[in-house]
Amino acid sequence: MSALLQKPIDYLKGVGPNRAQLLKKELGLHTLQDLLYFFPHRYIDRSKYYTPGQLPQTTADVQVLGTITHIETVKQKRGSRLVATFSDGQHSMELVWFRGHQWIQKSLQRNTPYMAFGRLNWFGKKCSIPHPELELVEDHEKRKGNFQAVYHSTENLSKSGISQRVLRQIVAHLFDEIQNKVHEVLSDEMRNKYRLIEKNKALHAIHFPKSQEGLAQAQYRMKFEELFFVQLQLGLKKRHRKERLKGIPFPKIGSLFNTFFHDYLPFPLTEAQKRVIREIRTDLNSSAQMNRLLQGDVGSGKTIVAVLCMLMALDNTMQATLVAPTEILAQQHYSTIHALLEPLGIEVGLLTGSKTKKERAPLLEQLASGQLQILIGTHAVFEEPVTFHQLGLAIIDEQHRFGVAQRAKLWRKNSIPPNILVMTATPIPRTLAMTAYGDLDLSVIDELPPGRKPITTLHRFDSKRLAVFQFMREEISKGRQVYVVYPLIQESKALDYKDLMDGYESIVRDFPMPDYQVSIVHGKMNAKDKTYEMERFASGKTQIMVATTVIEVGVNVPNASIMIIESAERFGLSQLHQLRGRVGRGANKSYCILMTGSKLSQDAQTRIQTMVRTQDGFELAEVDLSLRGPGDVMGTQQSGVLPFLIADLKKDVDILKTVRHAVDELLQNDPELKGQTSANVKMALSLSQQGKSIWKYIG
Ligand code: ADP
Ligand code: MG
Question: What is the CATH number of the domain that holds 603?
C-alpha cells in the first residue's frame, strides 16, 4: 500500500501532466499520499437550506431554494451582466452572471424549483449570489445532505480550471484508487479504548463527510493519530535518554549546599521553590542525565533555585555554568551570585562578548584547570575556546532566547553530557510544553514570594501624555523610580531609534536637571556605557530610565515602581508581560502604563485588554497562543517545529492529554514496542524514521 501512496499524482485519473504540475507548484502535492493528507480547511454545511425570504445576514456560502421568475440582461460600463430574479413566492433575490450569458440564459428554466448555491453578496437590504451553482431540485434530491469539503486553493488554480469541484473530483478518484487499503496504524485495543474509528473510514469521512457527527469522529481519529506519533517519538526519546545515556549523578549533598542553605539563604524559600528543588534533586541523584525545563513567572525566584543547584554540582566536585541571553542580565546574575557565594569562598567568573582576549585568558585557564567552579556568561560560553575541567551542570536562563542548536552545544562541553536546566519566565502554554518541549521534564514555580503587591496596569492614549508625566512627577517626589520603554524592532531600526531619541529628549525637557536625572540604555551603546547607566539607575542616582527592550529580561531594581511602555500596541503579549515584571519588586505600590495611539487593531486591543485584566503569566500565554499560533509563540528560531496537518494546538488540549495518557500507558506496558498490539505502531514509526510518512518532521 505504501508503494501505491508514493506514486506521483500525475498517475491519478482526472489529473494528467498539466494539472499535476500545477498541484505540485501551487499546493506542494506530489504524491497520492500528499493528496490523501491534504485535509480540507473548512466545510460547507449542505444540509441546510434557505429561501430568499429568510437569508442569513452574512457572506457565507449557502443553499437557497426558489424558482426563477424573471431574467434580464443589464448593461454595465463595460459589457453586461445577466440577472435572474430568484423567488420563493413572496420574497426574492438575484442570481447574477458576468460571463457566459448566452449559454446560461438558454439553460435556465423558469418556474421550476432550483437549488442555488453560492456566496451571499449583500448590498443594503438587497441580496445576490454571483455565479451560483444551480441545480434542479429534482436532481439535487438524489445527492443531498452532505457536508462539503473546501480545500486551500490559489488563484492560479481556479484560473486554470481547478475549482473546488474539480479538487473534490480528484480526491474522489484517489479514493477509488486506494480502495480502503490504507494501513491501520493503531491497534484494535487502542481504538476500542479511545473510541477511534478505523483509519480508512476516517480518511474518507474527512474528505467526504456525511454528517457533522461523522466528520467530528473522523477529525478526532486523525488528530489523535497525529498527536500520538509526536508524543510517542518524544516519549521514546526521553526513555532513551534516561535509560541509555549516561549522566553525571550528584549523589552527595555536601557542605557547600548545607552551609549556604542553613546560614546564608537570604529569605525562606516558598513552597513552590522547595518543591522544584526536590524535583531537580531527584534528577541529579539519578544516574540519568537531567534535562529539565523550569517555568516560573517573572519574579517567582528562579535565580536562587539556580544557585542551590549549582552548589549541588560543586559539592560533587563538578563545575557549573549559568548562561543568560543579554550582557546586562549576565552582569546582574554575576553580581547577585557573586555576593551570595562570597561568604562561602566560592569564586565566580563572568564571561561575555565584550571581554577582551587579555581579560579572557586567565579566566579560560582557570576554567580548564577546574580552579574556577562557577561561570556566568552570555552565549560566549557556548563558543569553542571555552573548555571546562568537568562541567556537571549547565543552566540556561530565559530559554526562549536561545535556539535548540545552542542547547546542543552545551551537551558537548563535557565527555558525558552535563545536566541541563533551562529556565523560562515566559510561561509556555500547556499544549506547547507537551509538544515542542515534550522531551524535557517540567517543573513549575507557581507561587510568587510573599509580600508582592499586585501591579496596577492602565491603558492611556498618547493624547493623555501630560497627565502621565504629572503622575510620574508625583511618584518621583515620593522617591520612586520610573522606566520608560520604547519598542525597538529589527526591521525598522532607524525609525525606532529616532522615536527613542525623540522620546528621550522630550523627557529631559519635561524633567530637567538638577531636580531630575535621566538615564538612557539602548542596544547601540557599548557594554561599559550600558552597565554604567544601569548602575546609576540601580543605585538611585537617576530617577528615570529611558530604554529599549534590552531591559526586558531579568533586570532587577526593586525601587523602580513605574513602567511606562510607549507604543505598547507594537509589543507582543509576552514582551509586555516581561516588561511589566520589572516593577512590583519592592515594597511600593507599582504601576504599568501602556501608552498607545488612538487607532488599535483588533489584536492589539485584545493584547492591551488582557494585560489590563490579568497578571497571570499562564493566562497570558494561552491568549498569546490563540492570537499568534504556535509557530510565532515559539519564536523564529524554532518556528516550523510543529507543522501539524490537522491537530490544532490552540484547541486540542483535551485530545493531547488523552493522547499523552495513551502513550504513557503503551510505553509502560511495552517499552520496546515488541508486543502484538504495538506491531502497527512500530511499523508506522519505522516508516516515519525513513522520512516516508507525514511524521517526517519529528526527530
Ligand atoms: P525570576 O524568577 O524572575 O528570575 P528572581 O530570581 O530574579 O526572579 O527573583 C525576584 C526577586 O525575588 C529577587 O529580588 C529575589 O531576591 C526575590 N526572591 C526570590 N525568592 C524569594 C523568596 N522565597 N522570598 C522572598 N524574596 C524572594
Ligand atoms: Mg530571572
Answer: 3.40.50.300
